Amino acid sequence: MIKHFTFTPEGVCSSQIDIDVDMDKQIIEDVYFTGGCDGNLKAISILTRGMTIDQVRAKLEGLTCGTKRTSCSDQFCRALAKIQSGELE
Q1: How large is the average pLDDT for residues 55-75?
Q2: Residue 50 near residue 74, CB atoms below 8 Å
Q3: Mean pLDDT of 13-35
Q4: Phi-psi region for residue 66, left (φ > 0), alpha (ψ -120 to 50) or beta?
């Protein structure tokens, strides 16, 4: 079953992350960032499509952007963590 999630990131340039997940397999079907660095975020979307949530988190969690303590990819991982824990509906 594919489920759609919307997450509001904090401390980054993107203002919204929309994520479609195959909940049975825990696979990223699609991700779309609103705002932020267009080319980089399109690349993240393409590269993570078909990966499991755990694979994405292992690669991108904790990354920072410049002097910020987080990044759009880290915020994506925070959204994925909330999806896994059931905090994001």
Answers
A1: 97
A2: no
A3: 98
A4: left
Q: Do 33 and 22 touch, CB atoms closer than 8 A?
A: no
Question: Per the structure block, which two tokens stand in for 31?
Answer: 């991700």
How is residue 83 written in tokens? 């999806």
Backbone phi and psi for residue 39, each to the nearest 5 degrees, phi listed first: -65, -45
pTM: 0.96
- What is the 3 state secondary structure string of the chain? CEEEEEECCCCCCEEEEEEEEECCCCEEEEEEEEECCHHHHHHHHHHHCCCEHHHHHHHHCCCCCCCCCCCHHHHHHHHHHHHHHCCCC
Q: Which two tokens stand for residue 4?
A: 């759609």
User: What residues pair up with 4 in beta bridges, in sequence order?
Assistant: 20
